[in-house]
Design goal:
globular, Aspartate Aminotransferase, domain 1, alpha/beta, about 400 residues, 4-stranded antiparallel sheet, 11 helices, about 15% strand, Aspartate Aminotransferase, domain 2
Length: about 400
């Protein structure tokens, strides 16, 4: 990994550091376009092939069909395609929970104010069991529920949701299911049929380690006609004239396609997805969990620390959220970076700190974080901190996925 050998990077849940193979793919494509004219037949045709390849790769990643894949700019982009495209009626209900990212909450709030949709918000503990989550959602899903939306893995506490169980309850009343998959691809194994979802929106820059402004939205094929494009581009019609007559595309996911996109970024995205597909994702996931368990075990022995994430079981993920009594989360993240070169994220809604454990992290780095938190917790009434000695820190792998939990 470039540029992270002199730090402890535990923030892949926000954005993963792109490996050299991703950077090289972007650079190579950008140079090809620049040196061969951006609108030459060779450049245009190869750009088309990159798009086709992107959809094919994502279909392999999602275990779905390529004609069910829409390439997007990010997770929020895909969520908005669905929410702004469904034909809402006043009184329709949307069910979601209070652990969600603002990119789920705010589009839902907008529906409430602009379409007269009623929101039913489930209150969950950040470390709730799958049984409790399923029961909580079941208690508010009714015949008026039009959509159930929630994150596959909650960004706030790392709680992995029982997706298929919630989807089953929603489908019994005819509701659609939209999943925010921001923390899914590259983190856990995916199968759209097994999950039973209707929509799954995801990014490229997190656990896939791809570039910003890349992502994909899954829409189940038979539901595509239900969603109307809220933004109209070249994919909306293949037959139109200057008198305003046109034949709208209804059944193809291409109807959501806009105009110019960045082929270099998509080339980087493709490189990221290809690398993941060559690995055993179950072993990658296991590595994430092993390191997360190491964090939790170390933190629970420290006075003044509260671990907010699930501790064990199928509810766990590679995200671990914790708080330090009497300390604001922004202060803690600032001190960890300034004094120890440890990069984590503040979860302000919980006044907590979140660490993301990815395959490239090491046990040594986890121990460095735990020692830093231990020192910080002991001095939580003071301001100054003393740096931890990190001599002998092992250099990280520069080529991703060479070793994941002992697997090649």
């Amino acid at each position: 990994m470039p540029n992270i050998d002199d730090m402890t990077y535990l923030n892949t849940g926000w954005s993963g550091p792109s490996p050299k193979y991703v950077v090289d793919a972007i650079k190579s494509r950008l140079e090809f376009e620049s040196f061969n004219c951006p609108t030459s037949p060779e450049v245009l045709e190869s750009a088309k092939q990159i798009t086709i390849e992107s959809k094919a790769l994502v279909s392999d990643l999602f275990k779905c069909q390529s004609d069910e894949v829409l390439l997007t700019d990010n997770t929020t982009d895909g969520i908005n395609v669905v929410l702004n495209g469904l034909p809402w009626k006043p009184g329709d209900e949307v069910v979601l929970c209070d652990l969600e990212h603002p990119s789920v909450l705010l589009p839902a709030y907008n529906l409430q104010s602009s379409k007269g949709v009623r929101l039913r918000i489930v209150s969950l503990n950040g470390n709730a069991s799958h049984k409790n989550v399923r029961e909580a959602f079941s208690s508010v899903i009714t015949g008026r529920t039009r959509l159930v939306m929630f994150s596959h893995i909650q960004y706030s506490t790392g709680l992995r949701m029982p997706v298929s169980a919630i989807a089953s309850v929603a489908h019994k009343v005819g509701a659609r299911v939209l999943v925010d998959g921001a923390q899914g691809p590259g983190h856990v194994e995916l199968d759209m049929n097994a999950l039973g979802v209707d929509f799954y929106s995801s990014p490229g820059q997190k656990w896939l380690l791809g570039p910003d402004q890349t992502g994909a939205l899954f829409i189940r094929r038979n539901i595509i006609p239900e969603i109307h494009p809220s933004r109209i581009g070249f994919g909306f019609s293949s037959n139109f004239n200057l008198q305003g007559r046109f034949d709208a595309v209804t059944h193809s996911i291409d109807k959501f396609s806009m105009s110019t996109t960045s082929s270099p970024l998509r080339a980087g995205y493709n490189a990221a997805v290809k690398k993941i597909l060559k690995q055993d994702i179950s072993k990658i996931e296991q590595r994430h969990l092993e390191l997360a368990t190491r964090i939790k075990t170390g933190l629970t022995s420290i006075t003044g620390i509260q671990v907010l994430s699930p501790y064990e079981g199928s509810e766990c993920s590679g995200l671990t959220t914790f708080s330090i009594d009497g300390m604001e989360s922004n202060y803690v993240t600032h001190k960890l970076w300034k004094n120890y070169k440890i990069l984590v994220r503040s979860i302000e809604s919980h006044q907590a700190i979140r660490a993301s454990t990815a395959f490239f992290n090491t046990e040594e780095e986890i121990d460095i974080l735990i020692e830093a938190i231990k020192r910080l917790a002991k001095k939580r009434k003071k301001v100054a901190l003393t740096p931890i000695a990190v001599k002998g820190r092992k250099k990280k792998q520069t080529v991703g996925f060479r070793k994941v939990g002992g697997a090649q």
